[in-house]
Amino acid sequence: QVQLVESGGGLVQAGGSLRLSCAASGRTASSYAMAWFRQAPGKDRQFVAHITWSGGTTYYSDSVKGRFTISRDNAKNTVYLQMNSLKPEDTAVYYCAARAFSSSSYSSRYNYQYWGQGTQVTVSS
Question: Strand, helix or coil at 29?
């Protein structure tokens, strides 16, 4: 299996930016499609962004489209989430996820096999 470790979270003011990183380790880790989810206090885990194994196709939730950018560096087995124009409603624990299989669904948390422990992002108003 693959291990995922998120980093880069923190406290920022509304309108600010953060870049999250997810370092993957394990055999053939770079062949996994990867995604970011987030979970705000008292709410369900929510899809944020997805990137295919090649990095050629990305998907975003409507709530972050135009503000967040997902990317990956397979040579480093790392996926990133650049977050700009942050809003207080972006406050959540952000989780990195990965899967080895192909699927038409990218936004369901049940389509991902591996998860990191999460990194806290807090946006103040």
Answer: helix
- The contacts of residue 118 (CB under 8 Å, 6+ apart) are 6, 39, 93, 94, 95
| Residue 86: both structure tokens together | 């942050």
Q: Residues of the chain with pLDDT > 90: what percent?
A: 78
State the Cα–Cα distance between residues 58 and 104, nearest whole angstrom.
13
Helical (H) or strand (E) element with 10: strand 10-13
C-alpha–C-alpha distance, residues 36 and 92, integer Å: 12
Tens digit of each residue's pLDDT (9 = 90 or more) over 71-111: 999 888 899 999 999 999 999 999 999 998 877 789 999 99
